[in-house]
């Protein structure tokens, strides 16, 4: 069996697995770099910081309204830094804060509809590129890709959670 052949259980030989892992790492870094360039462009256009755009993505992707405390934990920032971020986002018209109807001490963060439209327009080329890439794969192949990315994000969250608290937040891995 050659180095590229699968062994028992579909596993690659160690040398092939190392080469595949290296190739995957290169592609993930390239993708991260390309997405970061787009994010930084949006941040600059909107007069925001890149972290503000990360906060917007977290608010958008949350399954239920996000609170400042949950956003702080997600981004690995201090309470003061999250407050400053939310103040910038609110002033720029991207988010609104609302009080919980049951417990008025709880604040929920919401992405403003018009701001969402602005973001969609800016990120449309990214969505188009993703759609073009998607069209080159079958539904079954895409299901594997999505499962891989979800599993990778879960593993990265474990790494982030295991990072010592003394590690500055900007050097810890953050999950998105």
What would you say this structure looks like, in words?
The chain is mainly alpha-helical. The protein has 6 helices and 2 strands; from the N terminus they run ααααββαα. The chain has helices at residues 14-46, 50-61, 68-75, 79-91, 113-134, 139-162, and strands at 95-99, 107-111. The chain has a two-stranded antiparallel ribbon. It is globular and about 55 Å long.
In short:
The chain is mainly alpha-helical and 176 residues long.
Q: Strand-residue fraction?
A: 5-15%
Task: Report the average pLDDT across residues.
Answer: 87
- Radius of gyration, whole Å: 20 Å
Rounded to the nearest angstrom, the distance between the terminal CA atoms is 40 Å
Would you count the extended β strands for me? Answer: 2
Contiguous runs where pLDDT drops below 50 for at least 5 residues: 1-5, 170-176
Series of secondary-structure elements, N-terminal to C-terminal: HHHHEEHH
Q: Helical residue percent?
A: 55-70%
Described by strand count, sense and barrel closure, the largest sheet is: 2 strands, antiparallel
Major β-sheet strand ordering: 1-2
Shape: globular
Number of helices: 6
Q: Supply the helix-strand structural class.
A: mainly alpha
